[in-house]
Fold this sequence. Notes:
Elements: E1 5-9, H1 18-34, E2 40-43, H2 48-54, E3 59-61, H3 78-84, E4 88-91, H4 100-112, E5 116-121, H5 127-131, E6 137-140, H6 152-155, H7 157-167, E7 174-178, H8 184-192, E8 197-200, H9 202-205, H10 210-226
Parallel strand pairs: 1-2, 1-8, 2-3, 3-4, 4-5, 5-6, 6-7, 7-8
Amino acid sequence: MKKPILIINFKAYDNAFGKKGIDIAKKIEKISIEYSTEVTLSVPATMISTLSQEVSLPIYAQHIDDVDLGAHTGAITAEMIKEAGAKGSLLNHSEKRIRLDQIHNALTKMKKLGLESVVCIDRYELVNPIGLLQPDSILIEPPELIGSGISVSKAKPEVITKAVDEIKKTPSVYLIAGAGISNGDDVYTAIKLGSAGIGVASAVMKAKEPEKVVEEFIKGALRAIENG
């Protein structure tokens, strides 16, 4: 993963799949290339193969199951997403919670396959316990701010600063901030508070001009890095 980390979760919006999904991915790719800043797209499982071929951006799954290959109807395994072209996956998103043992098992499988991992949590007290499992990144998102348009970096900056203190105990793991991030200033503040990047969904997926929102996010991230 490359800093600044920018992850856009397509979720299951009406523009997350099919031609609309391809169009928005290509618009984001254009901005990513223009600013030489990597943007990761976390997409529905049905779009992993398509978008892995359509754009040069890293493509993530939104979830994997911690099961082995075999009789598990409906399961999405680490092997499946890798074969489809994914570089990694989110785990334990607030809309797809899994148990701690399932997180551990999924991370173990992903590491063996060389897949990147982002584990989502809802409070800073979980940073160290999850960090000890050695995911690539931890995405902290207070659930009450998700999709609210009220940024965690402004409404609850202490969530980020306390999480930053906790992530220092597992220095090989990146901390990402999410929930309510809506503009470049939100991104700038989140990174200045110590996060390695941000995770967003609705601010991009619901925008009339998503590429302009992504451009603003990138500018905010680069400005924060330039200002140390």
